[in-house]
Amino acid sequence: DAGVIQSPRHEVTEMGQEVTLRCKPISGHNSLFWYRQTMMRGLELLIYFNNNVPIDDSGMPEDRFSAKMPNASFSTLKIQPSEPRDSAVYFCASSPYRAGGELFFGEGSRLTVL
Amino acid sequence: QKEVEQDPGPLSVPEGAIVSLNCTYSNSAFQYFMWYRQYSRKGPELLMYTYSSGNKEDGRFTAQVDKSSKYISLFIRDSQPSDSATYLCAMMRDMSNAGNMLTFGGGTRLMVKP
After folding, report:
1. Is the pLDDT reported for residue B98 higher than 70?
2. Using one digit for the tens of pLDDT, what is the confidence trace for B47-65?
3. What's the pLDDT at B52?
4. Reported confidence tier of residue B94, pLDDT bands at 50, 70, 90
5. B8, pLDDT greater than 60
6. Are A37 and A43 in contact (CB under 8 A)?
7. Interface test with B, best of A26, A32, A89, A102 (most B CBs within 10 A)
8. Would strands A10-13 and A109-113 be described as parallel, antiparallel, or unpaired?
9. Residue B9 to residues A76, A106, B13, B63, B65: CA-CA distances in angstroms?
10. CB contact under 8 A, B43 and A91
11. How many CB atoms lie within 10 A of CB B36?
12. Which residue of A has its CA nearest to B46?
C-alpha cells in the first residue's frame, strides 16, 4: 500500500495568495483528518471527515481555511488568502476506524508564507 | 493548562541507555493511550497503543499507564541511534463515537548518541 499521499511536499508563497493542499488517503479508510504542526502549538486538528462528510471543523482557525472531500480518495485543504502565520507543516491522516485512534499520516506539506 | 502535557526535551542519552518518556493529562475520561514516533521531516507513526491502566510490551518498548495518577510512560530499553525521533503521546475517550478525537501531547525530542 502506498500510504497517505500528500502534495505538494513544499510550498512557498506570498501573503495573500491562495494555497491548496491535497491528500489521497489509504484506500478503504473511512476517516480523514487534517492537522497542522508548529513548534509553538504542536499538532492541532483542523478538520475531520467520516465517509466524506465533515464531522468536526471546530479546529479550522478562521474562514480563510476551507476543506473538501469530494470522494473517498481525495481531499483538499485551501487557505485563501494566506498569511505568514499560516506557515506550518500540514498533515493529512486517514484511519480505518470511525473515531480515529490509529492514524496513518502522510509525510506532510511544508507551507511557508512570506 | 493544556489537557496533555509533555516535556519537549531534547533528551540526549548514550546508546544502550534506558529511556523514559512521560506524559501527564487532566481529563479522567481518557481510556485509550497511544505513543506516536515522528522522525525528522516525516509524519507521525503509531508505535504503541494501550487501553486503560497497565503495561504493554513490544520488543524494546514498554508502555505504562497509571490512570490514578493521570500519568503515562514509554520506556525504551537498549536505546539505539535509530530511536532518535520525537515521541508524541496521544489519548482519547473511546473508539465508538466519531466525535471523540485524539488529543496529542507536544512531543519529546529524543537523541540517542552512538
Report:
1. no
2. 998 888 889 999 999 999 9
3. 84
4. confident
5. yes
6. yes
7. A102
8. parallel
9. 34, 25, 11, 19, 21
10. yes
11. 25
12. A102
CB distance from B102 to chain A under 8 Å?
A: yes
Specify which residues A114 forms β-bridges with: none
C-alpha cell at A54: 465533515
Dig out the grid coordinates for A70 from the structure.
469530494
Q: Taking residues A48-75, report their average pLDDT.
A: 93
- Residue type, position A13, single letter: T
Q: Do A99 and B98 touch (CB under 8 A)?
A: yes
Number of CB atoms found within 10 A of residue B41's CB = 10
3-state secondary structure of A65: strand
Q: Is the C-alpha dihedral spanning A41, B101, A5, B6 positive or negative?
A: positive
Residues of A with CB under 8 A from a CB of B: 4, 31, 42-43, 45, 48, 50, 55-56, 91, 93, 97-108, 110
Which secondary structure element, helix H or strand E, spans residue B36, and what is its range? strand B32-38
Give the model's pLDDT for residue B97: 60
